[in-house]
Amino acid sequence: MQYDVHALLQSGVLLTDQALERLLPSPNTPPHSIHRAMRHSTFAGGKRLRPILCLEAARMVAGGNTCDAAAAELGAALEMIHTYSLIHDDLPALDNDDLRRGQPTCHVAFGEASAILAGDALQTLAFQTIGNLNIPPAAVVAILKAVSSAVATGVGADLPGGLPPGMIGGQVMDIEGEGTKPTAELVERIHRAKTGALIKVSVIAGGLLAGGSEDAIARLATFGEKAGLAFQIVDDVLDMTQDSAQLGKTAGKDTASDKATWPAVFGIEQSIHDAGELVADAFAALDPFGESAAPLKALATYLTTRTK
Amino acid sequence: MQYDVHALLQSGVLLTDQALERLLPSPNTPPHSIHRAMRHSTFAGGKRLRPILCLEAARMVAGGNTCDAAAAELGAALEMIHTYSLIHDDLPALDNDDLRRGQPTCHVAFGEASAILAGDALQTLAFQTIGNLNIPPAAVVAILKAVSSAVATGVGADLPGGLPPGMIGGQVMDIEGEGTKPTAELVERIHRAKTGALIKVSVIAGGLLAGGSEDAIARLATFGEKAGLAFQIVDDVLDMTQDSAQLGKTAGKDTASDKATWPAVFGIEQSIHDAGELVADAFAALDPFGESAAPLKALATYLTTRTK
After folding, report:
1. Phi and psi at residue A95, to the nearest 5°
2. CA A13 distance to own-chain centroid
3. Do residue A140 and residue B141 have CB atoms under 8 angstroms apart?
4. Could you report the per-residue pLDDT of A4-20, keeping only the tens digit for each?
5. Which among A34, A130, A153 is the nearest to B121, CB-wise?
6. pLDDT for the residue numbered B129
7. What is the mean pLDDT of residues A107-129?
8. A145 Cβ under 8 Å from any chain B Cβ
9. CA distance A54 to A42
10. A172-176, A270-274, B161-165, B170-174: lowest mean pLDDT where?
């Protein structure tokens, strides 16, 4: 079945933005400066990829839109975490980027102190939002565990559960690796952690919210992992082949700073091929869901064939 | 009844440090730099005030030490949040402090990028630790709601619940107010938010963990609020009257930067008097608990009569 992915994206962005508008403190609530800084970066035109994946995973598991209200709030929480990580990543001490989504980055617009605290507050608000979800407490706890481990440092086998590497761990590996020639193994590890972990957990969290079985969650995890990695590879390729105006952010920065990217190690052609293979694997994981997996599959296809 | 507060403090520090040692990723777990930075600041000789308040509140409500294992982990989570807020507060873009608890601050020892990410990761690990508590899911959710709202920006009446000002909100008000003559109202608001909210919620969270009744939690909240404010007033007085060697941090910084402090507005004598009144109110809130409130009362007395 053909799926109208643009309608799906539009309605997902709308639901997410409405939830964010409701959940973020008003710009007129004191202390004003931080609420304005939080809103500046949250409403700077993001694609809402993570919330939309969360929403569609919940719909697939629920067999309809009965969970939409809670899923939109959970999606908003995931977007807050994504936004906080971008605000801190853009700081002078880290990537030192002035432009993000075509707009001045948070520290350029509001100063460094506000950007640091706005990022901190967005992380807090994300966990507060998860705590306030109107779903059974056991589901809140499952989501809390999954999301927090996905955005952690990458705790090792010496911690209970042997949790996988997380978002902050990926950022650290990325910084630690700068200036040295990236290896294939390191690039994959960084990608899985830095961007992959949050994308993967967005799909998992949507499934948990809708009360998915263990098998359903495992399949969503595979889908999220493969599709997320493919998305990041395509992002790296676009960074190398597009200019800043097309991307809405400073292009070529990854290459300039010798960052560990997929095309830098494997070349552009191989990267495009790898992304295709990953999408095929992602599709296969959802086979048992039949037609109800069409929206998630359409999303994965869209994300890996986009040109900006 | 006289209570041996030093034995209580020692055993509380020990339980907290054991929990932190277990929960923080090993310094040998990659990525190393961030795990070392997280540990540097976490194990820099803090008083463990928040964990000890949490532990003693849980013991009072439980009528013994049956909840100690979970309460120590919850206390460790609260200490992680406290440590993260100190790391970010010390950054050059904020207070620009080189010395904390007698040791180089995180960014001095590990660089700014690592300090920013170590703070971020400590906040995440705190919520992950709350998610992993071995208590009923409904109690986890109640603790998650209480702690996240206490460390947020100070969400206003336009958000559901009309939650009180939180820790990050206090930091922002503190920064916004610098350089202007502080008013009594502003000082109290900043104190309640910046330090008071986390201290108050430490007591509340301990009570929730032990399954306290609504009345017990309300009484603990009053105790935590009054004792926390008294503690902060005494801290301000010590900052004005002691030198750096005695305090283990840069003394007189509050005065130098025209920070909003209690003695700056009310004078030292009035401040000491106010702290005493607040402690009396804190004691009164715990009257119905009789003898089992002795440890919390002893703690409050100790914290407001200390000389460093």
Report:
1. -80, -15
2. 14
3. yes
4. 899 999 999 999 999 99
5. A153
6. 97
7. 97
8. yes
9. 17
10. B161-165
ipTM (interface predicted TM): 0.92
The number of distinct structural domains making up chain B is: 1
A94 shares contact with chain B (CB less than 8 Å): yes
Contact call for residues A169 and A189 (beta carbons, < 8 A): no
pLDDT value of residue B2: 62
The structure tokens listed for B247 are: 């305090």
Q: What letter does residue B293 receive in the DSSP assignment?
A: G
* Domain carrying residue B209: 5-305
Q: In angstroms, rounded to a whole number, what is the distance separating the alpha carbons of residues B145 and A132?
A: 7
- The span from the CA of B218 to the CA of B294, in Å, is 18
pLDDT > 60? residue A77: yes
* Nearest C-alpha in B relative to A81: B124
Residues above pLDDT 90, as percent of chain A = 67
Greatest CA separation found in chain B? 51
Q: Which is more confidently placed, B172 or B298?
A: B298
CB contact under 8 A, A140 and B144: yes
On whether the CB atoms of residues A16 and A75 are closer than 8 A, the answer is yes
B positions 148-177 inside 8 Å of A (CB): 148-149, 151-156, 158-160, 166, 168-169, 171-173, 175-176
Q: How far is CA A165 from CA A123, A154, A227, in A?
A: 18, 3, 17
Structure tokens given for A179: 């200036």
CATH of residue A37: 1.10.600.10
Helix axes of B68-89 and B197-209: crossing angle, nearest 10 degrees? 160
B 227-286 → A contacts, CB under 8 A: none
Q: A167-213: per-residue pLDDT in tens?
A: 888 888 888 877 777 787 777 778 778 888 899 999 999 999 999 99
pLDDT digits (tens, 9 = 90+) for B95-138: 999 998 789 999 999 999 999 999 999 999 999 999 999 999 99
Check CB contact under 8 Å for A124 and B168. yes
pTM, two decimal places: 0.93
Residues from chain A that touch B171, judged by Cβ atoms under 8 A, are: 117
